[in-house]
Amino acid sequence: MAGTYDSACHFSPVLIWNAQNDWVSFGFQGGRALAESGLRWDGLIRMIWGQLLYMVPWLALPALYVGVKALAAGPRGQFPSGAEPGVAALFCYIGWPIVIFFTVVALWSDTQFHFHWQAPGYLMLLCSWVHGPPIGTAGPFGRGSSARPLRPSSFSPC
Fold first, then answer.
1. How far apart are CA 113 and CA 104, in angstroms?
2. Which of 21, 116, 137, 141 is geometrically suited to a Cys-Cys bond with 133, CB 3.0 to 4.6 A?
3. CA–CA gap between residue 152 and residue 72 (Å, rounded)
């Protein structure tokens, strides 16, 4: 309940300002994702490549791989082995819709070079990657894998 109250306090100035100004910022941001003319397959391909380059392939591809594995394990599954059951799946349930939605938007709108729109989703997928067993134990990339970039700690946003 405190989180709802805190969110309402922080977001209410945005609603008040927009109500006083004919919802101009919502119109601008929403208008960027509206359909133009037909499907733009080149925009979708550019968005996928741009994400991989923006997120760097050595982080994006393993995050997507772990995201698929965690979804396959499900909410009661333990992925990676040794992790709390369902933790990785929760992060994936939050992250995948963001990555998929903002990638698919490029199919019908001119998103130009907004590869960062998917970044919050990748953050959640990276959190599912990080919340595994300690390095040196059997993880998603095999025993003794040092492929995981971080371990959860006080500076981790996850």
1. 14
2. 137
3. 23
Total Cβ atoms within 10 A of residue 9: 9
d(CA 37, CA 147): 43
Phi, psi of 142 (to 5 degrees): 100, 170
Taking only the tens place, the pLDDT of each residue in 82-128 is 777 788 888 889 999 999 998 888 888 777 778 888 888 888 888 87
Tokens describing residue 141? 């990339």
Collapsed DSSP state (helix, strand, coil) of residue 38: coil
Instruction: Quote the CA–CA distance of 72 and 75 in Å, as a whole number.
Output: 9
Q: Quick one: how far is CA 129 from the chain centroid?
A: 12
DSSP states along 108-119: TS--TT-GGGGH
3-class SS at 130?
helix
**Distance spanning both ends of the chain, measured CA to CA:** 21
